[in-house]
Specification:
The protein is of the alpha/beta class. The chain has one domain: ATPase, nucleotide binding domain (Nucleotidyltransferase, domain 5, 2-Layer Sandwich). It has helices spanning 51-62, 83-91, 101-110, 118-131; strands at residues 18-24, 28-34, 40-48, 71-76, 95-99. A five-stranded mixed β-sheet has the order 3-2-1-4-5.
Length: 132
């Protein structure tokens, strides 16, 4: 991922029609979609960390009926596990923002969220994007 082109945290999620949080794992990922008012549009859903899973994610996002430029996707910077997904989404025109894992961890701690699951992680990442 080209760090020079990659937006970091100071992106205003409220200026997009939808905000997506993606928790990336070596084999599975989980995503959640929220509106700027923080209402959940797509509940946390798992998909494979492979092209078939990326396509499933893209199909779900297309069903929302908005241009990819109106969808902000937050991903935790997780070494090489997210590189293929990042490129896939970037090529389709989604607005991407990498988050440092410490940022989402601190956000969850401040809200008393202790359990760490991929589904909770996806929701937390989306909420972090809307809190900036």
């Amino acid at each position: 991922m080209d760090q020079a082109k990659t937006p970091s945290s100071p992106v205003d999620g409220s200026s997009y029609q939808y905000v997506v949080g993606i928790d990336i794992g070596s084999e599975q990922c989980s995503f959640c979609t929220l509106k700027p008012d923080k209402s959940q549009v797509i509940k946390p859903t798992e998909f494979a960390n492979a092209v078939a899973g990326f396509s499933l994610l893209h199909e779900q996002l297309e069903r929302m009926g908005v241009s990819p430029s109106q969808v902000l996707i937050g991903l935790e910077a997780t070494s090489r596990y997210g590189e293929n997904l990042y490129r896939f989404l970037e090529q389709r025109g989604y607005q991407l923002c990498l988050l440092h894992p410490r940022q989402t961890h601190q956000f969850a701690q401040q809200r008393g969220l202790r359990a760490r699951t991929d589904r909770l992680g996806a929701t937390t990442i989306a909420r972090v994007r809307l809190s900036c």
